[in-house]
Design goal:
The protein contains eight helices and seven strands; from the N terminus they run H-H-H-E-H-E-H-E-E-H-E-H-H-E-E. By secondary structure, it is of the alpha/beta class. The structure holds S-adenosylmethionine.
């Protein structure tokens, strides 16, 4: 019989493996390097990724002098943007080393390496021993087997506010996405609004606002205050 801890560890390895393989393609979302066809697909089906980005920075402004932890920072678009917006210190944490290599390149290209630190690790097992003014968790809850444990640890690292996206089960994109990820051996979790509210409350956030983003993906974006 497979123990719970062994099962979780195997899920974590699958997720890291998936993102190590996907890193180079994933990065092109943010850098306008996609083919005309993929740009059309993004425009019609992935607008939510761009809206998530805009909403995050509206919720966190002004960032001047703030400290930020970006969990599952991927290729670093949020972390580097925080530094560009004058955050004093930004830590990006990610389980996939190839994503972090891209994040370091992004920070170097923007001349922002002094205020950005990128560390390899899986939250919450690897959590910086520090509290940050703001925390960002974008596009990550899809791959987290224990969301309550994750969000409790997140609350512990957050002084002011956390911005977290949660994937919803969209009638069209949801089943397709689950099949696509299953074929790539990457497990996936999708959420309902009530479930998100319950999780944030149990995790220790004092108040929160949950909005559903328009677009085919229809992610929820939660801004949660300590
Ligand atoms: C879809 S990407 C999102 C990257 C970035 N936040 C963005 O929105 O562009 C998800 C990232 O989360 C990372 N990840 C997944 N679970 C994680 C965990 N428990 N701790 C740290 N990183 C994690 C993956 O390695 C991957 O790079």
């Amino acid at each position: 019989m497979v123990k719970d801890s062994e099962h979780t560890a195997s899920i974590e390895v699958q997720v890291s493996h998936y993102f190590d393989e996907a890193a180079a393609v994933f990065d092109t979302f943010y850098d306008d390097q996609r083919s005309p066809f993929m740009r059309w697909v993004d425009h019609h089906f992935r607008r939510d990724m761009y809206e998530r980005f805009e909403r995050t920075f509206m919720a966190l402004a002004p960032l001047d002098g703030k400290t930020v932890l970006d969990i599952g920072c991927g290729s670093g678009p949020y972390a580097v943007e925080c530094a560009r917006r004058a955050a004093a210190r930004v830590v990006g944490l990610d389980a996939a080393e190839s994503m972090l290599a891209l994040a370091r390149q992004r920070a170097a290209k923007m001349g922002l390496t002094e205020r950005c630190t990128f560390i390899t690790g899986r939250f919450p097992d690897m959590a910086p021993n520090q509290v940050f003014d703001h925390t960002i968790v974008m596009g990550v809850m899809d791959y987290v087997p224990d969301p309550l444990g994750f969000l409790r640890a997140l609350a512990g690292c957050t002084r002011q506010s956390a911005v977290i996206s949660f994937p919803s089960f969209h009638w069209f994109r949801g089943p397709l996405r689950i099949i696509r990820y299953k074929l790539k051996r990457c497990p996936l979790w999708l959420y309902q609004r009530d479930q998100i509210a319950g999780l944030l409350q149990s995790a220790g956030f004092a108040s929160f606002q949950i909005d559903k983003i328009a677009g085919a993906g229809m992610d929820y974006v939660a801004v949660a205050l300590r």
